[in-house]
From TrEMBL:
<feature type="transmembrane region" description="Helical">
    <location>
        <begin position="53"/>
        <end position="78"/>
    </location>
</feature>
<dbReference type="InterPro" id="IPR039421">
    <property type="entry name" value="Type_1_exporter"/>
</dbReference>
<dbReference type="InterPro" id="IPR011527">
    <property type="entry name" value="ABC1_TM_dom"/>
</dbReference>
<feature type="domain" description="ABC transmembrane type-1">
    <location>
        <begin position="18"/>
        <end position="300"/>
    </location>
</feature>
<dbReference type="Pfam" id="PF00005">
    <property type="entry name" value="ABC_tran"/>
</dbReference>
<feature type="transmembrane region" description="Helical">
    <location>
        <begin position="127"/>
        <end position="151"/>
    </location>
</feature>
<keyword id="KW-0067">ATP-binding</keyword>
<feature type="transmembrane region" description="Helical">
    <location>
        <begin position="237"/>
        <end position="260"/>
    </location>
</feature>
<dbReference type="InterPro" id="IPR003439">
    <property type="entry name" value="ABC_transporter-like_ATP-bd"/>
</dbReference>
<dbReference type="GO" id="GO:0016887">
    <property type="term" value="F:ATP hydrolysis activity"/>
</dbReference>
<dbReference type="InterPro" id="IPR003593">
    <property type="entry name" value="AAA+_ATPase"/>
</dbReference>
<dbReference type="InterPro" id="IPR027417">
    <property type="entry name" value="P-loop_NTPase"/>
</dbReference>
<dbReference type="Pfam" id="PF00664">
    <property type="entry name" value="ABC_membrane"/>
</dbReference>
<keyword id="KW-0547">Nucleotide-binding</keyword>
<keyword id="KW-1133">Transmembrane helix</keyword>
<keyword id="KW-1003">Cell membrane</keyword>
<feature type="domain" description="ABC transporter">
    <location>
        <begin position="334"/>
        <end position="569"/>
    </location>
</feature>
């Protein structure tokens, strides 16, 4: 899976990869050639006191060394460029895949793990790609070439190569086997700590309101300690590995000097050849150590690749229809036909046999007790979820046959929890209407009763908005979200309890101002306050996922006991009359 993921995303950069391979080959050949030249200087130039030979060979060594440096620098440059590009493309692929997920798919993975997989996991693949491009050619050729060159210099000491190299490989292999499960746990614990941190940042107001700072601090400390303990275990294995490899390196050097010294005394080998053999042995072991660095990263990268591939190979639970030009027979009409919906794993459906029609120029209100399924019903219209049973038609066309662009052009929703993106007020208002003029934006703000406070802010439409809109009040954030929906000028407006953060006077003014821009559109409102929906053309009373009554305010006051109870709990006798 790791190799498949890297190869798939590195295809556009094959030219750079080929350049890296050629440069690494040149570097490796130059590195292998240098000890041999050094041996010739010692055995020929120094022994025979041939100064000219020393200068010629030394000059050649200098040229080879300069070539080695130049090719090594160029190889690292192209390797880094390729690995960073591969990492960028994998991140882009993960983001594009996640953007196709429905709310149900996101909940299946969890927001925290999706963030980790798109950042930390991709970074592991990126770093392994960088190491592989730097060492995948050098390490094996250096090892094989070093063995050949060492045996060529002194076959009698070749047994030292066959002893030291397998020892290093055995040590590395055992440690990699130990590291694999630890790295898998480490990525899971990074998910955990991200999840805790995300919850605490998002719910900081709740934490402070209930004075739970100490509890949340301890919860984060526990998650952090678990990750730390696992990191220490991994570190302990690394602590064992490097001294073990270093010991093998030094013992090999001592063995070459000991046995090689006797061979020099016996005139079985020249001093220069022995020196070259030692350098080749060190090069071999250094190449193995380079491979070790890669080996350290491979287990974690394999785990990360599996986690990334799990996201990339995941098929969205809701498949988008192919985007094409579809003429809606009845724009603005929303029709539910015997729609039922249940969340995955739930014991019972949230909605049962829902049927109604919302028409252009009319306001349809949905009211009911908490947990009745009002928000879920509204979320089915822009296709955040797919109905379990039944059919939803937008403009006379089944929802499943419409592409995302068509849905977004015809439907604007103001969610129950208003959310603004980092940027400016203008960029947020243009979120659903990229070509909206400033006059269009000010008109939308005026209807949403937000033009006053926007005009007072420094920069006005260019005023900065922080992530989530945390630098404006709840009521201001609510009104900006309403203005954003109005700026898109759709044929259907969805308001999910969107007036709850407004005071009664602002609520009344806003609803009065909405009449003109929404006169030709269908308006569907989920409301908690009865006063918000008394003028609706039809009111649907939802109870336990079923429509138990429908009609106007006056009709329901006469016919629906459930509606009467809701009204009685909110309005005085005079207000009801």
């Amino acid at each position: 899976m790791l190799l498949k993921l890297i190869l798939k995303h590195s295809k556009p950069y094959m030219g750079w990869i080929i350049a890296v391979v050629i440069l690494q080959l040149a570097t490796t050949v130059a590195t292998l050639y240098l000890p041999s030249l050094n041996a010739r200087i010692i055995d020929v130039g120094v022994v025979k006191a041939d100064i000219d030979f020393i200068w010629r060979t030394g000059g050649l060594m200098l040229v080879v060394a300069l070539i080695q440096v130049a090719t090594a620098v160029a190889a690292v440059y192209f390797g880094a460029k390729t690995s960073m590009s591969v990492g960028r493309d994998i991140r882009q692929s993960v983001f594009e895949k996640v953007s196709t997920f429905s709310a149900q798919d996101v909940n299946k993975f969890g927001a925290a793990t999706l963030i980790t997989r798109g950042t930390n996991d991709v970074q592991q693949i990126q770093m392994l790609t960088l190491m592989a491009l730097n060492f995948m050619i050098t390490a094996p050729i250096m090892s094989i070439g070093g063995v050949i060159m060492a045996i060529r210099e002194d076959p009698g000491l070749s047994w030292l190569v066959w002893v030291s190299v397998p020892l290093v490989l055995i040590v590395v292999g055992l440690l990699v086997i130990k590291l694999m499960p630890l790295f898998r746990d480490m990525q899971t614990r990074i998910d955990g700590i991200n999840g805790v941190l995300r919850e605490q940042i998002t719910g900081i107001r709740v934490v402070r309101a209930f004075v739970r700072e100490e509890h949340e601090t301890q919860r984060y400390a526990d998650a952090n300690q678990k990750l730390t303990d696992l990191g220490v275990k991994v570190g302990n294995l690394f602590v064992l590995m490097f001294p073990a490899i270093t010991m093998i390196l030094h013992l090999s050097t001592a063995a070459v000097l000991w046995f090689g010294g006797h061979r020099v005394d016996n005139n079985q080998v020249e001093v220069g050849a022995l020196t070259a053999f030692l350098q080749y042995l060190l090069q071999i072991l250094m190449a193995v150590m380079m491979g070790t660095f890669m080996a350290m990263m491979i287990p974690r990268a394999m785990v990360s690749a599996d986690r990334i591939s799990e996201v990339l190979d995941s098929e969205p639970s809701m498949l988008d229809a192919a985007e094409r030009q579809i003429a809606l027979p009845t724009p603005g009409t929303v029709e539910f036909k015997n729609v039922s919906f249940g969340y995955p794993g739930a014991e019972a459906p949230v909605l049962n046999d829902i049927s109604f029609t919302a028409k252009p120029g009319q306001t349809t209100a949905i009211i009911g007790s908490t947990g009745a399924g009002k928000t879920t019903l509204l979320n089915l219209i822009p296709r955040l979820y797919d109905a379990t049973e039944g059919e939803i038609l937008i403009g006379g066309v089944p929802l499943a046959e419409l592409g995302r662009d068509t849905i977004s052009r015809n439907i604007s929703a103001v969610p129950q929890r208003p959310y603004l993106f980092s940027g400016t007020i203008g960029s947020n208002l243009r979120f659903g209407a990229q070509d909206a003029t400033e006059d269009d934006l000010w008109e939308a703000l005026k209807v949403a009763q937000a033009d006053g406070f926007v005009a007072e802010r420094e920069g006005q439409l260019d005023s900065k908005i922080s992530q989530g809109g945390t630098n404006v009040s709840g009521g201001q954030r609510q009104r900006l979200c309403i203005a954003r929906a109005l700026a898109a000028k759709p044929s259907t407006y969805l308001f999910d309890d969107s007036f709850s953060a407004l005071d009664v006077n602002t609520d009344a003014r806003l609803r009065a101002a909405l009449a003109e821009p929404t006169k030709d559109a269908a308006v569907i409102i989920v409301a908690q306050r009865v006063s918000t929906i008394t003028g609706a053309d039809q009111i649907l009373v939802l109870d336990h996922g079923e429509i138990v009554a429908r009609g106007t305010h006056e009709q329901l006051l006469e016919t629906s006991e459930t509606y009467q109870e809701i009204v009685a709990s909110q309005l005085s006798v005079e207000e009801v009359a």
